[in-house]
Fold this protein.
Amino acid sequence: MRQTGFFLIVLFLIISAVYLLFFKPTDEFVENDLYTEIVQRGYIKVGINTDSKPFGFYDEKGRIIGYDADLAGYIAQYIVKDSSKVEFIPVTPSNRLIKASTGEVDMVISTVTITPQRQEVVSFSRSYDSAGQALLVKSNSAVKGLQDLAGQSIGVIFGTTAEKNIQHLVPTAHIQGFRSYQDAYLALKAGNINAITSDDTILNRFALSDRGVKLLPRRYSNEPYGIAFKKGESTQRLKEELDFALNDLLRKNILYSLHNKWGLGG
C-alpha cells in the first residue's frame, strides 16, 4: 500500500509539472493586437459625430461626409490599403470615449480634443488639427466676450471640453447642456440662451449660413484634435501606425488640403 501511495504521489507531481510546463497559467488576460485584428478583418470601424459639420454630417444622399470622414478614408488606405473600407458608427460627444475605451469601435475620429484627463481613459494619436473655444451669439447681441455673460445662460454640448472649461471661465453663468449642436443653435435663435460656446471650427458653420448669428473673434483655449482608441498594450501597434500615417499626411500637405477643402481657412 505504501508503494502504491508513493507511486500515486510521484505520478501526480509529474502530471502537475507537465501541466505547468505546457499550460502555464497567467494572471493577465492577453488581448489580441487591434492593428492585426483590423488588417485581418479588412476594414476599420470608425466612430464619427454626424452633427459636427464640416467634420462629420450626412449629405443629401444620406452618406456621411466631412473632414473627419475624409481622414478616416486616408487612415483606411494606410492600414488596409483601401480608402473605402470604413464602417462609420455614429457617436456623440457624450458617448464617443466610452465606445473607444470599450472597443465598440476601433477608433474615434470626431474632433476629440486631446487632454490629460481623457488620456487617463483612452489613447490618442498625434494631433491632426486644432480649434479654439469660441462664442456664438445673435447678431444683435450686446455680448462682446465672456465678461458679458456673468449671470447669463450659455449653451454647451454634453461631453465637450467647452462644457468643463466654461464652468471655470464664467462661474456665475447658467450652463444649459444640449445633446447636439443643432439643438443648441435652435435654442439660441429662440432666445432661450444668450450664447453657445464650443470649438470655433464647428460653430463657424452657423455664422456662415445665418446672418442672424455671429462668431465672436476671441478664442479662450487651444484644442488639439486627435484620433482616440482603446488604451493598453493591444493598441500600441495601432498608435504607431496612426502616428506614421498622420505624419505622412502632414508631410504631403494632405491635412492642410483637407482643412481648406472643408472651409476651415488657411
User: Anything to note?
Assistant: The chain has two domains: 34-131+224-261, 133-215. Residues 34-131+224-261 form a domain with the D-Maltodextrin-Binding Protein; domain 2 fold (CATH 3.40.190.10).
